[in-house]
Amino acid sequence: MNEYRTHTCGELRSTDVGKRVLLAGWIHRKRNLGNLCFVDLRDHYGITQCVFDSSSDLFEKIQNLRVESVIGVEGEVVMRESINKNIKTGDIEIKVQNLVVHSEADQIPFQVAFEDDSPEELRLKYRFLDLRRERVHNNIMLRSKVIKRMRELMIEQGFTEYQTPILTASSPEGARDFLVPSRINPGRFYALPQAPQQFKQLLMVSGFDKYFQIAPCFRDEDPRADRSPGEFYQLDMEMSFATQEDVFAVLEYTMGTIFEEFSNGRKVSKAPFIRIPFKEAMLKYGSDKPDLRNPLVIQDATGLFGHSGFSVYDTKVAEGEKIRAIVLPACGDKPRSFFDKFDAFAKENNMGGMAYIAFSSNGAKGLAKLFDEVKLAEIKNSLNIKDGDAVLLMAGKEKVLNKFAGLTRNKAGEALDLFEKDAFKLCWIVDFPFYEENEETGAVEFSHNPFSMPQGGMDALLNKNPLDILAYQYDMVCNGVELASGAVRNHRPEIMYKAFEIAGYDHSVVDLIVRLCSFWMSRLSEM
Q1: Which of left, alpha, beta for 433 (phi over 0: left; psi -120 to 50: alpha)?
Q2: Beta-bridge partners for 17
Q3: What is the biggest distance separating any 2 CA atoms in the chain, rounded to whole angstroms?
Q4: From residue 425, how far is each of 263, 295, 432, 498 by CA, in Å?
Q5: How far apart (Å, rounded) are the C-alpha atoms in residues 414 and 480?
Q6: What is the 3-state secondary structure (H, E, C) of 435-478?
Q7: Torsion sign, CA atoms 484, 487, 488, 490
Q8: Which three-class secondary structure state does DSSP give residue 72?
Q9: What is the pLDDT of residues 164-184, one digit of tens each?
Q10: Residue 512, pLDDT above cutoff 80
Q11: How far is 432 from 30, CA to CA, in rounded Å?
């Protein structure tokens, strides 16, 4: 028998009443009622209430111990008088007959049993204490369970997990490498992989078919809100002889199952997830990472202006700028101060200002005074505005305007409390442009991944306007956060040459890339 414990602190139930047990753990809370001292004993598995009677010689000993001290108790399992339904062991308690102090704690710098507003710097300094908090502890366990389930789902679909090297040659992917000095080769360095990109491609061209890895990625870049600085982990996968549809099917099953099983009762989008072309996403949501919990959409209102009578917007349209509109439901009777906040928001973002029309119960307001009844009716019909609604109008150059309209959409959704609660809204963003025009030089450049397959292949490269060519590139988005990103690789040399030629690179540049990749692959093979 284990000399420290016969059971964990999350294990005992009413069926164990009468048993003599040993428990070990941390003092989570203490409550001294004079004749009784109640101690909540915590370990990895849960909490069990332990009772010390004042008639016992253990009473003074437990009173003098601080919370977070590590103790062992021996005693009898008895039924509790007041059942605690918030914990699994809430039906029982331990009547303590013996106490062993394994480690006595000093005064702790912040509370573990309760949430407080301790600054992050203090929590990180005493990270071992912070990790004892229920919320942080549960998050770490959730991560472990998600990764375990992710592995099961990928293996179930015929994938094999491979481990790729960590110490490697440098192969930058947009960020700076972390470098590790070589002891046996002074002055030379290994690089930590920004992603297992080259390694997994080496596996695929070697015929390993379905690859996946819970891969560590190291990038010397500034921290972001959704990841730690320096390193993060990702589900990395590759498939041989697969189409975009095959990739979607795998990820929808894997991620859909993960969200369903770990959503804790929240609503989850059902597969197949909706697909939104990049161009549509930028127009309707002002972002290629749309938060679909917000029901508001952006509309193109450019065609309503040019000869409207509102000279400011008419002039902008004549100069090639665009007009965007966001209809706000049931906001027609909002006070002017409500709309003034959006106008101020536009000016803060260097957008000049924001106009509005409110179709209130007392007649139309805002820009309405500049239009006759015919024009107002056209605006209402074109933008599907109902009586009692309002519409925000904004103008600018398309790329800048789209982004600002997206910010406005989210600001309005928050102000009106329109975001759907307790929901995970998943979607695919598809049909990314293969090329884009450099605004300063007018040159055609790659928009995202130059090594992805253009839709239409060689025929599209030969016969279409480059700015109209789409790529087999895609992102999975949930609640405004990009969860996954990928592409179908271009495996045809003649298509690769032509794609780079359109972007201004001749054969010699592509040949150099090929030679460098071959050299790099040979280096990998030798490691």
Answers
A1: beta
A2: none
A3: 94
A4: 12, 11, 21, 38
A5: 14
A6: EEECCCCCCEEECCCCCECECCHHHHHHHCCHHHCEECEEEEEE
A7: negative
A8: strand
A9: 999 988 875 678 899 999 999
A10: no
A11: 59
Per residue in 340-367, pLDDT (tens digit) is: 999 999 999 999 999 999 999 888 999 9
Amino acid identity, position 133: R
pLDDT of residue 115: 85
- In contact, 384 and 305? CB cutoff 8 Å: no
Q: Which pLDDT score is estimated for 192?
A: 93
Residues counted in the chain: 527
- Which tokens sit at 54? 């004042």
Separation of alpha carbons 282 and 295, rounded Å:
15
Question: Could you give the C-alpha distances from 342 to 120, 286, 338, 477, in angstroms and in order?
Answer: 33, 16, 7, 27
pLDDT of residue 386: 95
CA distance linking residue 401 with residue 383, whole number of Å? 18
For 169, the token pair is: 């040659």
d(CA 407, CA 400): 11
Peptide bond connecting 272 to the previous residue in cis, omega within 30 degrees of 0: yes
Using the predicted structure, report yes or no on whether residue 301 has a pLDDT greater than 90. Answer: yes
Residue with the two structure tokens 């990472």: 289
**How far apart are the C-alpha atoms of 470 and 263, rounded to whole Å?**
34
Sheet with 230-239, strands from edge to edge, namely: 160-161, 210-219, 230-239
* Residues contacting 244, CB < 8 A, separation 6+: 430, 472, 474, 488
Say if residues 208 and 160 touch (Cβ distance below 8 Å): yes
130-155 residue pLDDT tens: 999 999 999 999 999 999 999 999 99
- The letter for the amino acid at 432 is F
What is the residue type of 146?
A: V
| Backbone angles phi and psi of 134, in degrees to 5 | -60, -45
Which residue in 437, 441, 400 sits closest to 316, CA to CA? 400
| Tokens describing residue 68 | 């977070």
CA 281 to CA 286: how far, in whole Å?
6
Residue type, position 490, single letter: N
Give the global pTM: 0.89
Question: What mean pLDDT value characterizes the chain?
Answer: 93
Joined together, the tokens standing for residue 137 give: 């502890």
3-state helix, strand, coil in the chain (%, to 5): 35, 30, 40
For the chain, how big is the Rg over CA atoms in Å? 31
